[in-house]
Amino acid sequence: MSKKTIVMFSWILALTISCDFAATFTYHQALETFYKKAKPSMPAAESDGRTPTLNQKGAISPTLDYGTLSFLEFGKNKRILEVGGAYGNVMLEALHQSGSTIYHLNDLDERHLGIAAFRLQEKIDQRKICMAGLGNVQFIYGDITQSSWKVKEPYDAILMANVMRFLTPNQIDQAFSNLFTSLKSGGRIFIIAMTPYVNRYKSFIPEYHQRIKDGAPNPGFVKNIRHYANNDGKIQNQINNITDGHFMFLDDITLSNLAKSAGFKVLECTFKPLSYKSESWELDGRETVVLIAEKP
Ligand SMILES: C[S@@+](CC[C@H](N)C(=O)[O-])C[C@H]1O[C@@H](n2cnc3c(N)ncnc32)[C@H](O)[C@@H]1O
C-alpha cells in the first residue's frame, strides 16, 4: 500500500470515529487534515503581546501563568490533556521540557490544531523537541461541552485555560462532568478563568456584586459582553473585535463550588494577577482565578 493510501485510510478512520465522539488525530494526520490544504497562519499579536484566535474566542497570552506552570510541573512525563489549547504554546513547552510526556491537544477549531501541528514539526526539524515517540502527541478535534465527549483512556492531568468564559452555565456543568470522567482517580484539573475584576469590563463589577448579594445563580453570566466594554478610548483598538456573544466571569467561590458539585476535591482556588502587562485587562491583581482540583 502506498504512503498516500495509508494517510487517506487513517483520515477516513479518524473521521468515522468523529461521528460519535471527539476525533483523535496523530501528528501526521493533523498536518495532512488541518494544515496542508488551507495552510492557516497565526494572526499578528496585539499591542499587549496576545495573539488572537481565528474563531473570535479570545487570544493567547504571551507568557505562561501560574496555573499553566503548575500543570506543566505536575504533568511532566505523565499522560496529559489540554482543552482549548489553540496554537499549542503549552504543548510545545511541555514537549521541550520532556519528550516523554504524552500530550493530547484539544480545540474546537481545526485551523488552530493545524497550526499547532505545523509548529511542532518546525521544532522537531530544528531539534528543539525530541519526542520519545511520535505517538506521544495526539490532536483532539472536539467540543468539551458535548454530552458525547469521550476519551480513550483517562489522563493524569488536564489544563483548561481561558475557555470557561465562552461557555453558558449548562455548558460549564457538562464540561466539568466531562473533565471528571476524562481523569484518572488521583488526577488533577488545572483551570484558569477570568474574573469580573478586569479593566476592559469593569462597568460590570457593581452589577456583579449586587447579584452576589441577591444570591443570584450564575452571577458572572452576561448575555451580551459588548454592553460592558470599557469605552474610555485608551483601549479602543483592543475592544473593536468584541462580539455580541455571551460571557462568563468566575470568582474563587463560584469556581470552587462548580468543581465540588462535579465531584472534585478542591486543592487550591485563588485569584491571581495577569502574568503579562496589559492596559486592556489589568485592574487590581485579581484578573484571573486559578483552580487546582483532584478527582478522588
Ligand atoms: C482564549 S483561547 C485560549 C487558548 C489557551 N488555552 C490559552 O490560554 O492561551 C480559547 C480557546 O478555546 C477554544 N474553545 C472554546 N470553546 C471550546 C470548547 N467548547 N471546546 C474546546 N475548545 C474550545 C477556542 O477555539 C480557543 O482556541
Automatic annotation (TrEMBL):
The keyword Transferase applies. Coiled coil: none annotated. Residues 1-22 form the signal peptide. Keywords: Methyltransferase, Signal, Transferase. CDD domains: AdoMet_MTases (cd02440). GO terms for molecular function: methyltransferase activity. It holds the Pfam family Methyltransf_23. GO terms for biological process: methylation. It comes from the Bacteria. The keyword Methyltransferase applies. This is Class I SAM-dependent methyltransferase. The lineage of its organism: Bacteria, Pseudomonadati, Pseudomonadota, Alphaproteobacteria, Holosporales.
